[in-house]
Amino acid sequence: MIEIFIVSFLIALTGALSPGPLLTFTIYKSLKQKRGYLAAIYILLGHATIEFALIIALLAGASLFLRNIIFLTLVGVIGGLLLVIYGILTIRGVLKTDFEKDYPLGGNMIRGYKGNSYVGGILVSLSNPFWTFWWAGAGFSLLAVRFNITLLMPMEILTFFLGHELGDVVWYLPISIFVYFGGKSLNPKIYKYVLIISGIFMIVFGIYHGFDTVFNPSQFENLGA
Asked: Which of 68, 87, 157, 211 is spaced 20 to 30 Å from 112 by Cα?
């Protein structure tokens, strides 16, 4: 259970650190609404709601295949590959960004939905195609292959879910508070190396996860039992 929580937390944190629609929306709401320091809380509640629903849907939809070693191996390899690709893209994005200047927090405002923060957390998540692909590939791979979680394991599901959401909270909540109380930029050097470390972690874990899936099939023996 501890491993589930820690790995879920670290994977979510490395993903949350990278700039994306949810971060932009959080910054926008933190700057614009009256109590902006609370924006991240409502946004993340919306984000967590749709993620929990998706976790249940993924496990329910794949329940008939969770005893099939070929299916699980394929999911594990694809999930590991997606983690590697995401890590490479993260590092590539860092190397192409000019970090000599401070990373702006208020420059690029989100276009589109700007309403209720909770609803926005749901809509912005759903509008991000990478989010859907990540859960369908890497996210499901971690659930079903790495941790052998099925729909009949509520404590394991809850542990994974809480670890994953905490990874988002640790990044988005401080950013929301920082922006609301006048923060205009992040330290570019620190942020640059944090992103690089995050990318490396994703690559290393993705390679390990993919190879472990192929060369350690015994991990599937008790799945669904």
From this structure: 87
Q: Report CA-CA distances (Å) from 161 to 5, 128, 193.
A: 8, 20, 27
Q: Which of 44, 30, 213, 219 is closest to 137 using CA atoms?
A: 213
Tokens matching residue 209? 């996860």
Report d(CA 195, CA 19) in Å as an integer.
10
pTM for this prediction: 0.81
Q: In 3-state terms, the chain is what percent helix, strand and coil (to 5)?
A: 75, 0, 20
Average pLDDT, integer, range 10-34: 83
String of DSSP letters for 96-127: HS-TTS-EESSSS---S--S-HHHHHHHHHHH
Nearest one of 12, 206, 197 to 91, comparing CA atoms: 197
Q: Please tell me the distance from the alpha carbon of residue 113 to that of residue 134, in angstroms, as a whole number.
A: 23
Helices 2-17 and 154-180: crossing angle in degrees, nearest 10, is 30
Integer-rounded Cα radius of gyration of the chain: 18
Contact present, 87 and 203 (Cβ < 8 Å):
yes
pLDDT tens, position by position, 104-121: 555 454 555 667 889 989
Task: Say if residues 162 and 145 touch (Cβ distance below 8 Å).
Answer: no
In tens, the pLDDT along 113-142 reads: 667 889 989 998 888 888 888 888 888 888
